[in-house]
Design a protein that fits this description.
Blueprint lengths: L3 H23 L2 H17 L10 H17 L35 H4 L6 H9 L3 H7 L4 H13 L3 H7 L4 H18 L10 H16 L2 H5 L2 E9 L2 E6 L1 H9 L9 E7 L2 E10 L4 E12 L4 E7 L2 H4 L19
Parallel strand pairs: 1-6
Antiparallel strand pairs: 1-2, 3-4, 4-5, 5-6
Helix pairs in contact: 1-2, 1-3, 2-3, 3-7, 6-9, 7-9, 8-9
Length: about 325
């Protein structure tokens, strides 16, 4: 029998890893948080049955995977704008899509265990990249579970097969299909830590965006870079169309300020747009960058600030007043 206080402490220690696992399975932080809560509740209620033949983390991941599979039975696949329809242009209409359809961001701070070493932290960042989690959503739920349990969590094929109530040969066959699907939809894994060149790229992006110098900003983009603005299904491709949007229908973002944070293992920012009526900078978007080796590959502006800013600990507005002519 496990003593309740020590067991509760151990559960709290595993929470970030469980949240990362459930997020990869479900593609939504609120859903993942619900799954973790249910996992910890089930674990606490059945703590007397934990015999210690496997690690506590392994036992908890077994419970969490079952919870996620139950939840996925009633959910549709979460997607990014690029999977919802063809590329748009600066004249395309803005069509809003329901929140439950979107792949959502996750704050690094919630999924990185405080006591984890540099190697584990880098691995977690690598496996929560937005492109990677988006690719996982293309897998049927049981294939997704099989791949995550074996390739990320570290289960043996026998352990994963036992959990999924299948044979080892059947599991290995599912893994082959899952890895092939993932290879089609996901880029090569990005490094867990940013290089000096990428850090410089982020600094130049912030400088160009806050000056609203679109020539300088688009020079940082790959030729096939994308931009999307959930909850709208519209997405754009290429520096030309992105610049045309930002200087046209998006020109009200001129004069914005960026507050740094981290999402999905990559740099992100709270964007605060000047509001002349209130005289202050007010929330506009959670901006996420997807970085290649030397260029920005994607920009995502999550516009539902009431939904996302509290999760990232971003302020309701920036202190201070606007300049007389914000630039």
């Amino acid at each position: 029998m496990v003593e309740a206080p020590s067991f509760e402490f151990a559960l709290d220690d595993e929470r970030p890893r469980l949240l990362a696992h459930c997020y990869r399975m479900l593609g939504s932080l609120p859903d993942a948080d619900d799954a973790v809560q249910e996992t910890l509740l089930r674990a606490y209620r059945s703590r007397d049955s934990f015999e210690g033949r496997s690690s506590l983390g392994t036992w908890l991941h077994r419970i969490a995977t079952r919870v996620c599979l139950d939840m996925l039975a009633d959910q549709r696949r979460r997607q990014r704008a690029m999977e919802m329809g063809p590329v748009g242009n600066t004249e395309s209409p803005l069509v809003e899509v329901a929140a439950e359809c979107w792949l959502e961001p996750v704050p690094d701070a919630l999924v990185l265990p405080p006591r984890a070493g540099p190697e584990e932290r880098a691995e977690i960042r690598q496996r929560i990249r937005l492109a990677y989690v988006a690719a996982l959503q293309h897998l049927p739920p049981r294939q997704r579970a099989a791949l995550l349990l074996t390739d990320v969590v570290g289960f043996s094929a026998a352990e994963a097969a036992d959990l999924l109530e299948t044979s080892v040969p059947a599991l290995n066959s599912a893994l082959q299909r899952a890895r092939a699907t993932l290879a089609r939809h996901a880029p090569s894994p990005a490094p867990g830590e940013l290089t000096e060149e990428q850090l410089g790229l982020v600094e130049r992006f912030v400088d160009a965006f806050e000056r609203y110098d679109m020539e300088a900003l688009t020079a940082l983009l790959r030729e096939d870079a994308t931009m999307s603005m959930p909850p709208y299904s519209l997405w754009l491709r290429g520096p030309g169309d992105i610049a045309a949007w930002m200087t046209g229908r998006g020109a009200a973002c001129r004069g914005s300020r960026l507050v740094p944070t981290h999402a999905n293992g990559a740099p992100a920012f709270g964007q605060y747009k000047p509001n002349p009526e209130t005289g202050r900078y007010e929330p506009w978007a959670l901006v996420m960058l997807e970085l290649g080796e030397s260029r920005i590959e994607g920009l995502t502006f999550y516009l539902d600030t009431g939904r996302f800013f509290p999760r990232f600990g971003l302020p309701e507005f920036l202190p201070g007043s606007l300049p007389s002519n914000p630039e």
